[in-house]
Amino acid sequence: MDQRPRRVTINDIAAATGFAASTVSRALSRPGRVNAVTRDAITQVARSLSYVPNTHARALTSGRTETVAVLVSDVTNPFYFGLIRGTQHQLKAAGYAHLLIDSENSGGLESHMLTKMRQSIDGAILAASRLPDRLLAALAAELPIVAINRNVHGVPSVLIDSPSGVAQATEHLISLGHREIAYLSGPENSWANAARWRALVTTAARHGLPVRRLGPFPADRMNGSAAADALINTNVTACITFNDLLAIGVLARLHERGVNVPGQISIVGCDDIFGADFCHPTLTTLTAPIEQAGQVAVSMLLTRLHEGAPTTRQSIVLPTHLTVRDSTGPAPD
Protein backbone atom coordinates (compact mmCIF):
# COMPACT_ATOMS: atom_id res chain seq x y z
CA MET A 1 0.00 0.00 0.00
CA ASP A 2 1.25 3.48 -0.84
CA GLN A 3 2.03 5.15 2.53
CA ARG A 4 3.00 8.55 1.10
CA PRO A 5 1.00 11.46 2.60
CA ARG A 6 -1.65 12.95 0.33
CA ARG A 7 -0.77 16.32 -1.21
CA VAL A 8 -2.72 19.23 0.25
CA THR A 9 -4.84 20.80 -2.49
CA ILE A 10 -6.56 24.11 -3.07
CA ASN A 11 -9.85 22.36 -2.26
CA ASP A 12 -8.52 21.46 1.20
CA ILE A 13 -7.66 25.11 1.86
CA ALA A 14 -11.07 26.17 0.58
CA ALA A 15 -12.77 23.75 2.97
CA ALA A 16 -10.69 25.01 5.91
CA THR A 17 -11.27 28.71 5.19
CA GLY A 18 -14.80 28.69 3.83
CA PHE A 19 -13.74 30.53 0.67
CA ALA A 20 -14.40 29.24 -2.83
CA ALA A 21 -11.60 27.25 -4.47
CA SER A 22 -11.36 29.89 -7.19
CA THR A 23 -10.77 32.57 -4.55
CA VAL A 24 -8.08 30.44 -2.92
CA SER A 25 -6.43 29.93 -6.29
CA ARG A 26 -6.35 33.66 -7.00
CA ALA A 27 -5.00 34.46 -3.53
CA LEU A 28 -2.11 32.04 -3.96
CA SER A 29 -1.25 32.63 -7.62
CA ARG A 30 -2.36 36.25 -8.18
CA PRO A 31 -2.46 37.86 -4.72
CA GLY A 32 -2.98 41.35 -6.13
CA ARG A 33 -6.48 40.35 -7.28
CA VAL A 34 -7.71 39.47 -3.77
CA ASN A 35 -8.31 41.90 -0.88
CA ALA A 36 -5.69 41.87 1.86
CA VAL A 37 -7.87 40.37 4.63
CA THR A 38 -8.95 37.43 2.47
CA ARG A 39 -5.42 36.92 1.14
CA ASP A 40 -3.89 36.87 4.62
CA ALA A 41 -6.45 34.40 5.93
CA ILE A 42 -5.89 32.03 3.00
CA THR A 43 -2.09 32.18 3.10
CA GLN A 44 -2.07 31.58 6.87
CA VAL A 45 -4.13 28.42 6.47
CA ALA A 46 -2.02 27.32 3.49
CA ARG A 47 1.11 27.57 5.65
CA SER A 48 -0.50 25.70 8.54
CA LEU A 49 -1.46 22.85 6.18
CA SER A 50 2.07 22.82 4.62
CA TYR A 51 0.59 23.50 1.21
CA VAL A 52 3.04 23.11 -1.70
CA PRO A 53 1.94 24.61 -5.05
CA ASN A 54 1.54 22.19 -7.94
CA THR A 55 3.97 23.81 -10.38
CA HIS A 56 2.81 21.66 -13.27
CA ALA A 57 -0.79 22.71 -12.83
CA ARG A 58 0.27 26.33 -12.41
CA ALA A 59 2.23 26.14 -15.64
CA LEU A 60 -0.85 24.86 -17.47
CA THR A 61 -2.98 27.78 -16.29
CA SER A 62 -0.42 30.60 -16.30
CA GLY A 63 1.87 29.48 -19.11
CA ARG A 64 4.80 29.87 -16.70
CA THR A 65 6.99 27.12 -15.25
CA GLU A 66 9.13 29.44 -13.07
CA THR A 67 12.16 27.52 -14.34
CA VAL A 68 15.14 28.95 -16.21
CA ALA A 69 17.72 26.84 -18.05
CA VAL A 70 21.39 27.81 -17.75
CA LEU A 71 23.55 26.30 -20.50
CA VAL A 72 27.33 26.16 -20.17
CA SER A 73 29.74 24.78 -22.75
CA ASP A 74 31.74 22.64 -20.28
CA VAL A 75 30.49 22.14 -16.74
CA THR A 76 33.90 20.80 -15.60
CA ASN A 77 35.62 24.11 -16.43
CA PRO A 78 36.15 26.09 -13.18
CA PHE A 79 35.38 29.27 -15.12
CA TYR A 80 31.70 28.35 -14.91
CA PHE A 81 31.63 27.70 -11.15
CA GLY A 82 31.19 31.37 -10.27
CA LEU A 83 28.77 31.93 -13.12
CA ILE A 84 26.58 29.02 -12.00
CA ARG A 85 26.64 30.30 -8.43
CA GLY A 86 25.65 33.79 -9.59
CA THR A 87 22.74 32.59 -11.71
CA GLN A 88 21.49 30.18 -9.08
CA HIS A 89 21.51 32.71 -6.24
CA GLN A 90 19.73 35.32 -8.35
CA LEU A 91 17.10 32.88 -9.60
CA LYS A 92 16.50 31.48 -6.12
CA ALA A 93 15.92 34.98 -4.76
CA ALA A 94 13.30 35.53 -7.47
CA GLY A 95 11.55 32.21 -6.76
CA TYR A 96 12.74 30.47 -9.92
CA ALA A 97 14.16 26.98 -10.32
CA HIS A 98 17.60 26.64 -11.93
CA LEU A 99 18.07 23.96 -14.62
CA LEU A 100 21.75 23.42 -15.46
CA ILE A 101 22.63 21.95 -18.87
CA ASP A 102 26.11 21.05 -20.16
CA SER A 103 26.15 21.60 -23.93
CA GLU A 104 29.55 19.87 -24.28
CA ASN A 105 30.90 22.59 -26.59
CA SER A 106 28.33 21.54 -29.20
CA GLY A 107 25.97 23.96 -30.91
CA GLY A 108 23.94 20.98 -32.10
CA LEU A 109 23.42 19.65 -28.59
CA GLU A 110 22.63 23.14 -27.36
CA SER A 111 19.88 23.54 -29.95
CA HIS A 112 18.53 20.04 -29.30
CA MET A 113 18.28 20.54 -25.53
CA LEU A 114 16.58 23.92 -25.83
CA THR A 115 14.05 22.50 -28.29
CA LYS A 116 13.41 19.49 -26.03
CA MET A 117 13.01 21.61 -22.89
CA ARG A 118 11.03 24.42 -24.53
CA GLN A 119 7.75 23.60 -22.76
CA SER A 120 9.49 23.16 -19.40
CA ILE A 121 11.29 26.51 -19.13
CA ASP A 122 10.35 30.18 -19.20
CA GLY A 123 13.70 31.29 -20.62
CA ALA A 124 17.40 30.50 -20.80
CA ILE A 125 20.84 31.88 -20.03
CA LEU A 126 23.37 30.78 -22.66
CA ALA A 127 26.98 31.01 -21.50
CA ALA A 128 29.53 30.97 -24.34
CA SER A 129 26.93 29.65 -26.79
CA ARG A 130 28.34 27.64 -29.71
CA LEU A 131 25.32 28.31 -31.94
CA PRO A 132 25.94 30.20 -35.19
CA ASP A 133 24.83 33.86 -35.09
CA ARG A 134 21.84 33.24 -37.37
CA LEU A 135 20.48 30.39 -35.26
CA LEU A 136 21.09 32.24 -32.00
CA ALA A 137 19.16 35.27 -33.28
CA ALA A 138 16.31 33.01 -34.47
CA LEU A 139 16.19 31.33 -31.06
CA ALA A 140 16.01 34.70 -29.29
CA ALA A 141 12.95 35.56 -31.38
CA GLU A 142 11.13 32.46 -30.08
CA LEU A 143 12.36 32.11 -26.48
CA PRO A 144 13.40 34.73 -23.92
CA ILE A 145 17.17 34.34 -23.63
CA VAL A 146 20.23 36.25 -22.50
CA ALA A 147 23.64 35.31 -23.86
CA ILE A 148 26.89 35.60 -21.92
CA ASN A 149 30.04 36.24 -23.96
CA ARG A 150 28.23 36.39 -27.31
CA ASN A 151 27.53 39.59 -29.22
CA VAL A 152 24.76 38.98 -31.75
CA HIS A 153 22.37 41.66 -33.01
CA GLY A 154 18.93 41.25 -31.47
CA VAL A 155 20.13 39.00 -28.64
CA PRO A 156 20.35 40.54 -25.14
CA SER A 157 23.83 39.85 -23.82
CA VAL A 158 26.31 40.24 -20.98
CA LEU A 159 29.85 40.61 -22.27
CA ILE A 160 32.94 40.10 -20.16
CA ASP A 161 35.41 42.52 -21.72
CA SER A 162 38.30 40.08 -22.09
CA PRO A 163 39.51 41.81 -25.30
CA SER A 164 40.45 44.89 -23.25
CA GLY A 165 42.15 42.55 -20.79
CA VAL A 166 44.12 40.96 -23.62
CA ALA A 167 45.16 44.45 -24.71
CA GLN A 168 46.38 45.09 -21.15
CA ALA A 169 48.26 41.80 -21.17
CA THR A 170 49.89 42.62 -24.51
CA GLU A 171 51.03 46.02 -23.26
CA HIS A 172 52.36 44.36 -20.12
CA LEU A 173 54.45 41.88 -22.13
CA ILE A 174 55.75 44.57 -24.47
CA SER A 175 56.77 46.69 -21.48
CA LEU A 176 58.87 43.72 -20.31
CA GLY A 177 60.78 43.74 -23.61
CA HIS A 178 58.96 40.95 -25.46
CA ARG A 179 58.95 41.56 -29.20
CA GLU A 180 57.19 38.47 -30.54
CA ILE A 181 54.08 37.12 -28.84
CA ALA A 182 52.05 33.99 -29.59
CA TYR A 183 48.39 33.30 -28.98
CA LEU A 184 47.41 29.76 -28.00
CA SER A 185 43.97 29.54 -29.58
CA GLY A 186 40.92 27.86 -28.05
CA PRO A 187 37.85 26.38 -29.80
CA GLU A 188 37.24 27.79 -33.27
CA ASN A 189 33.50 28.13 -32.59
CA SER A 190 34.13 30.35 -29.53
CA TRP A 191 33.20 34.02 -29.94
CA ALA A 192 35.52 35.00 -27.10
CA ASN A 193 38.43 33.18 -28.75
CA ALA A 194 38.13 35.26 -31.92
CA ALA A 195 37.66 38.49 -29.95
CA ARG A 196 40.81 37.87 -27.87
CA TRP A 197 42.89 37.13 -30.96
CA ARG A 198 41.75 40.36 -32.62
CA ALA A 199 42.64 42.35 -29.52
CA LEU A 200 46.16 40.89 -29.49
CA VAL A 201 46.68 41.60 -33.20
CA THR A 202 45.42 45.18 -32.90
CA THR A 203 47.51 46.03 -29.83
CA ALA A 204 50.71 44.47 -31.18
CA ALA A 205 50.22 46.25 -34.53
CA ARG A 206 50.25 49.63 -32.78
CA HIS A 207 53.79 48.80 -31.70
CA GLY A 208 54.77 47.35 -35.07
CA LEU A 209 55.26 43.89 -33.60
CA PRO A 210 54.41 40.47 -35.10
CA VAL A 211 52.15 37.92 -33.43
CA ARG A 212 51.63 34.21 -34.07
CA ARG A 213 48.53 32.11 -33.64
CA LEU A 214 48.95 28.47 -32.64
CA GLY A 215 46.16 25.93 -32.46
CA PRO A 216 43.22 25.66 -32.10
CA PHE A 217 43.52 23.56 -28.96
CA PRO A 218 40.71 22.11 -26.83
CA ALA A 219 40.49 24.46 -23.85
CA ASP A 220 41.53 22.10 -21.07
CA ARG A 221 44.60 21.26 -19.00
CA MET A 222 45.31 17.99 -20.81
CA ASN A 223 45.80 19.73 -24.14
CA GLY A 224 48.25 22.15 -22.61
CA SER A 225 50.99 19.61 -23.38
CA ALA A 226 50.43 19.81 -27.14
CA ALA A 227 50.17 23.59 -26.92
CA ALA A 228 53.45 23.82 -25.01
CA ASP A 229 55.25 21.59 -27.52
CA ALA A 230 54.02 23.80 -30.36
CA LEU A 231 55.15 26.87 -28.45
CA ILE A 232 58.66 25.52 -27.91
CA ASN A 233 59.06 25.11 -31.67
CA THR A 234 58.72 28.88 -32.18
CA ASN A 235 61.06 31.72 -31.31
CA VAL A 236 58.53 33.67 -29.26
CA THR A 237 59.38 34.73 -25.73
CA ALA A 238 55.81 35.21 -24.50
CA CYS A 239 52.32 33.87 -25.11
CA ILE A 240 48.73 34.60 -24.19
CA THR A 241 46.50 31.55 -23.85
CA PHE A 242 42.76 31.23 -24.50
CA ASN A 243 42.03 30.33 -20.89
CA ASP A 244 43.65 29.40 -17.59
CA LEU A 245 43.09 25.65 -17.91
CA LEU A 246 45.15 25.58 -21.10
CA ALA A 247 47.78 27.87 -19.53
CA ILE A 248 48.14 25.65 -16.46
CA GLY A 249 48.65 22.63 -18.73
CA VAL A 250 51.30 24.60 -20.65
CA LEU A 251 53.12 25.45 -17.42
CA ALA A 252 53.21 21.78 -16.38
CA ARG A 253 54.56 20.64 -19.76
CA LEU A 254 57.22 23.38 -19.93
CA HIS A 255 58.39 22.33 -16.48
CA GLU A 256 58.67 18.70 -17.69
CA ARG A 257 60.80 19.83 -20.61
CA GLY A 258 63.08 22.01 -18.51
CA VAL A 259 61.87 25.33 -19.93
CA ASN A 260 62.05 28.07 -17.32
CA VAL A 261 58.98 30.27 -16.83
CA PRO A 262 59.33 33.24 -16.91
CA GLY A 263 63.10 33.13 -17.48
CA GLN A 264 62.82 31.72 -21.02
CA ILE A 265 59.18 32.37 -21.81
CA SER A 266 56.33 34.29 -20.17
CA ILE A 267 52.79 32.90 -19.97
CA VAL A 268 49.48 34.77 -19.56
CA GLY A 269 46.10 33.09 -18.99
CA CYS A 270 42.49 34.30 -19.15
CA ASP A 271 39.69 34.12 -16.53
CA ASP A 272 41.59 33.88 -13.17
CA ILE A 273 39.93 30.60 -12.21
CA PHE A 274 40.34 28.92 -8.85
CA GLY A 275 43.86 27.48 -8.84
CA ALA A 276 45.48 30.11 -11.05
CA ASP A 277 47.32 31.43 -7.99
CA PHE A 278 48.21 27.93 -6.73
CA CYS A 279 50.15 26.61 -9.73
CA HIS A 280 53.92 27.02 -10.07
CA PRO A 281 54.77 29.63 -11.03
CA THR A 282 51.56 31.45 -10.13
CA LEU A 283 49.73 32.52 -13.26
CA THR A 284 49.47 36.06 -14.62
CA THR A 285 45.92 36.22 -15.96
CA LEU A 286 42.85 38.31 -16.74
CA THR A 287 40.51 38.67 -13.78
CA ALA A 288 36.84 38.83 -14.71
CA PRO A 289 33.63 39.42 -12.68
CA ILE A 290 32.28 35.99 -13.54
CA GLU A 291 29.72 35.63 -10.74
CA GLN A 292 28.44 39.14 -11.43
CA ALA A 293 27.96 38.22 -15.10
CA GLY A 294 25.58 35.44 -14.06
CA GLN A 295 23.64 37.75 -11.75
CA VAL A 296 23.30 40.48 -14.39
CA ALA A 297 22.17 37.97 -17.02
CA VAL A 298 19.40 36.69 -14.74
CA SER A 299 18.26 40.25 -13.95
CA MET A 300 18.03 41.02 -17.68
CA LEU A 301 16.07 37.83 -18.35
CA LEU A 302 13.62 38.35 -15.48
CA THR A 303 12.97 41.90 -16.68
CA ARG A 304 12.01 40.44 -20.05
CA LEU A 305 9.77 37.80 -18.46
CA HIS A 306 7.99 40.17 -16.08
CA GLU A 307 7.51 43.04 -18.50
CA GLY A 308 6.63 40.82 -21.45
CA ALA A 309 8.91 42.77 -23.76
CA PRO A 310 12.61 42.74 -24.63
CA THR A 311 14.85 44.41 -22.08
CA THR A 312 15.77 47.99 -22.88
CA ARG A 313 19.42 47.14 -22.32
CA GLN A 314 20.48 44.92 -25.19
CA SER A 315 24.11 44.60 -24.08
CA ILE A 316 25.96 45.11 -20.80
CA VAL A 317 29.76 45.05 -20.76
CA LEU A 318 31.63 44.11 -17.56
CA PRO A 319 35.28 45.18 -17.25
CA THR A 320 38.31 42.94 -16.72
CA HIS A 321 41.79 43.70 -15.45
CA LEU A 322 45.19 42.06 -15.62
CA THR A 323 46.42 40.36 -12.45
CA VAL A 324 50.23 40.10 -12.62
CA ARG A 325 51.80 37.12 -10.90
CA ASP A 326 55.00 35.10 -11.36
CA SER A 327 54.52 33.58 -14.82
CA THR A 328 55.55 36.78 -16.63
CA GLY A 329 58.91 38.52 -16.51
CA PRO A 330 61.48 40.38 -18.61
CA ALA A 331 62.27 38.99 -22.06
CA PRO A 332 65.46 36.90 -22.11
CA ASP A 333 68.59 38.61 -23.50
From TrEMBL:
Matching InterPro entries: HTH_LacI, LacI/GalR-like_sensor, Lambda_DNA-bd_dom_sf, Peripla_BP_I
Record has Transcription as a keyword: yes
Keywords annotated in UniProt: DNA-binding, Transcription, Transcription regulation
Single Gene Ontology MF annotation: DNA-binding transcription factor activity
Domain of life: Bacteria
Domain HTH lacI-type per the UniProt entry, residue ranges: 8-62
Pfam families noted in UniProt: LacI (PF00356), Peripla_BP_3 (PF13377)
TM regions (residue ranges): none
Protein's recorded name: LacI family transcriptional regulator
